[in-house]
Design a protein that fits this description.
Length: 329
């Protein structure tokens, strides 16, 4: 009881209610173990079914709005994802449990209806009519046997009893024909009290019940609690589905972008290879031209040198001949 009171005071006045005004308050962190993880994610299921058959008892954790705000503003992380998984698992287990209850309730109603239809009790006046009919038939058979034996007096006595029973039977039939409306009313009343199972919380409802009682059920804690659980689970699964679709679209866009970048990269490499090949070819052509030009120049120089040497020898020979001729004179 003391812990519950302390928790209520913490939720109403804050955890630092007893601190000195000059003292610095402890900074709130949503990851502290004292805070209820279910309340941080959406809401605490313990608060939904107070004083109902599905009451889960008092929550042992703190429900702090500041911690919830920090949790909502926090970036996705492993602990935050774990809190969401725990909340989803807890709510799903509760929904599965009430769904099993709904299935059992429907099976129970189906069994009750089949028993009512298959083994419906026979009305009291019908039992009387059946009994009178059996007695009349028996008296007729006995009278026939007495007549066969030749006992006329006994046969007449039996037929008189048979006539009395027939009159009693006719009177009974007329009496219940005049009261036929009451039988119809009973059947209608039994039909009006047919039951059905609520698809949300599993409660038994009367078909065609008064609107006020239907509204009371729809606004009751148990129905609203399970409705809130189902809505929260559906919203979380829908959010996950959208996140998955967005993630797949983002991955697809990233794949397309990487594919385009790879194509551009390959094109650039291909152009670079072509440029290198072209440059190499130009270099080869240039080197070939230079080599050919050098070889041509070398050949030309050698030719010029040979010609020069030839002319030089010829000139020298001519000078030698002229010198020798001049000596001979």
């Amino acid at each position: 009881m003391v812990d519950v009171a302390r928790q209520l005071l913490d939720e109403l006045m804050g955890r630092n209610r007893n601190l000195d005004p000059s003292a610095s308050a402890k900074e709130v962190s949503w990851s502290d173990e004292e805070f209820c993880p279910y309340f941080l994610v959406k809401f605490c299921p313990h608060d939904l079914f107070v004083n109902t058959r599905a009451d889960l008892g008092q929550c042992t954790k703190l429900h702090d709005d500041e911690a919830k705000r920090l949790f909502d503003e926090a970036k996705p992380c492993r602990k935050k994802t774990q809190y969401e998984e725990d909340f989803l698992r807890f709510c799903t287990n509760m929904i599965n449990e009430v769904d099993r209850k709904i299935v059992k309730g429907k099976q129970r109603l189906l069994l009750m209806n089949s028993k009512t239809e298959g083994g419906r009790p026979v009305p009291k006046h019908q039992e009387q009519l059946n009994s009178l009919t059996e007695k009349i038939n028996k008296l007729v058979r006995d009278a026939e046997e007495a007549g066969t034996r030749g006992d006329v007096e006994q046969a007449q006595g039996l037929m008189e009893q048979c006539d009395q029973l027939k009159e009693e039977k006719e009177a009974l039939v007329k009496q219940h024909e005049s009261n036929g409306w009451s039988v119809t009313a009973e059947i209608a009343a039994s039909q009006e009290k047919q039951m059905e199972v609520c698809e949300v919380c599993g409660a038994f409802l009367i078909v065609g019940d008064a609107q006020q009682r239907i509204d009371d059920h729809l606004t009751g804690k148990q129905h609203l609690g399970y409705s809130k659980l189902r809505k929260a689970v559906d919203e979380m699964y829908e959010a996950r589905r959208k996140n998955t679709i967005n993630l797949e679209e983002r991955r697809s866009k990233d794949d397309d972008r990487r594919r385009r970048e790879n194509v551009k990269r390959e094109d650039r490499k291909s152009r670079e290879r072509d440029d290198r090949y072209s440059n190499k070819r130009e270099d080869r052509d240039r080197n070939r031209y230079r080599r050919d030009h050098r070889e041509y120049k070398d050949r030309s120089d050698r030719y010029d040198n040979r010609q020069r040497d030839r002319h030089s020898r010829r000139d020298r020979n001519e000078r030698d001949r002229d010198r020798s001729r001049s000596r001979s004179y």
